[in-house]
Structure formats: C-alpha cells, structure tokens
Amino acid sequence: MDITRITREQKIEISRKYFLVGIPFLPWVWIINVCWFWGDAWNKTNHIPEVRRYVIWSGIGALLHLAIITAWIAVYQSERVRWGELGDDISLHVPYGSP
Questions:
Q1: How far is the C-alpha of 88 from the C-alpha of 90, rounded, in Å?
Q2: What span, in angstroms and rounded, lies between the C-alpha atoms of 26 and 77?
Q3: How far apart are CA 29 and CA 16, in angstroms?
Q4: Torsion over CA: 75, 86, 93, 61 (sign)
Q5: Closest Cα to residue 8, out of 58, 34, 43?
Q6: How far is CA 38 from the centre of its chain?
Q7: pTM, rounded to two decimals
Q8: d(CA 17, CA 24)
C-alpha cells in the first residue's frame, strides 16, 4: 500500500484504526502504525497533528508491551526450575535434562 497517494483524512482514519486495533494487546500493529506514519507525524511543512497523537501513543504502547514481555521472559527463564511443576505446566515446551 502506498500511503503517499491517500488523502489527509484517510491517513488520519487509518492511523486511528491501527491505534484502536493495537489496544487489545497487539503491539505489532502499533509498530506498523509508527513506521508507516512517522513521516506524516513529524513532517516540518505538512505534519498532521491527529496522526502525530496516534503515532506517539502507538510508540508508547509498543515500548510498554516490549518492556513487559522482556521482563516476563527474564523472570521465567531464571525462575522456571525453582517454580517446579508450575514452571513446567505453564511452558509450551518442557526441556529435557537436568536444570
């Protein structure tokens, strides 16, 4: 999709939809929103304030999700063995061998 060919109103609507779709924990949609509309949000001559707002909040949401997922991975990887059976039960792949 070439976003340079769509109108200002369509850009606002698409950015808004991507932001709303990302709310139920879909951070990759927020990342796409930031990448696609970064130029429209910070273009010095013709920026779109509404798109800038959606790009900022999408970026904040994506970074927050990344921090939460990274923290969970770090805690799980370091504490899985100590959690015993619970650590194995919540794992999709139980590794074989000694801890």
A1: 6
A2: 23
A3: 11
A4: negative
A5: 43
A6: 15
A7: 0.78
A8: 12
Residues 6+ apart with CB under 8 A from 62: 22, 27, 28, 30, 31, 34
As a residue count, the chain comes to: 99
Query: Residue 7 is which amino acid?
Result: T
How is residue 83 written in tokens?
Answer: 């959690």
Residue pLDDT, tens place only, 43-90: 878 888 899 999 999 999 999 999 999 999 999 989 988 988 888 888
**1, two tokens:** 């999709």
DSSP designation for 45: T
Q: Give DSSP secondary structure letters for 62-89.
A: HHHHHHHHHHHHHHHHHHHHHHTHHHHH
Per the structure block, which two tokens stand in for 92?
């999709």
